[in-house]
Prior knowledge:
alpha/beta
Amino acid sequence: MSTLIDLHTHSNESDGTDTPAQLAVKAGAAGITTLALTDHDSIAGWSELVENKPKGLSLVLGAEISCQTEEALSVHMLGYLFDPNNHDLISSMNQTRVNRITRMEKIVEKLQAGGVEITLTEVYAELSEGATLGRPHLADAMVRKGIVKDRSEAFNIYLHNRSKYYLPDASPTPERAIKLIKAAGGVAIIAHPFASLRGKIISAQYLETLVGAGLDGIEIFHRDHNQSERDQLLELSRRYQLIVSGGSDYHGSGKENRLGENSTQKSQWERISEVATGFSVVQG
């Protein structure tokens, strides 16, 4: 039996457009055999995803944890199969969600000062109840007002990491996130670390320090990595015997990313499932 393993997706419990139930159905229809739900700083979609799992689809429950280096560079850490009752990890994610509200207020103020007519009320109108607030919701509000045609244009013009309107997250360091994930029995894999089109990126030297902090793997197969970046990361993964993962970073209709467009090899997925002790895979 062929396998298609997508270890990076989002629902409307963060900044995706599909409910967890819709995500489960679409993943099954796309031929995916193992799917990870990795909403930003949230596990709110876990239960609904499991309840609506189609036959034959195995589920990997996780989260994409927002991090910030000491130099204020944004980093995302994928945590898989951690204990959802671990107080320290869940508290950290909850605090990051609260911090995102203050951050959004400041970004909107900067946009308004720059002549962009958008309000917080309009941003919140795009947010599902209980979802993690993020720039995609601001992008959706800008689309609705006709400021831009779609999310991609909003990010290309206003919301990218080099933009004068950008503000970093107030969130744990990558080292702290790794420690929290692993203490909760999970597996820590850094998401798209060399995606230079997104803005400033961490260095190879800093990535090596994260290996020393306990990093388990690198998401290499991602649409925002070009071939040169993938080659560099593959060399680092071989040098340090790190897990190599891939995922679509699917967000529903909000982005062009397609379910299963990048995937994880079965042998690498087996390494993840063998390392995790916090939570079990929901088998297909």
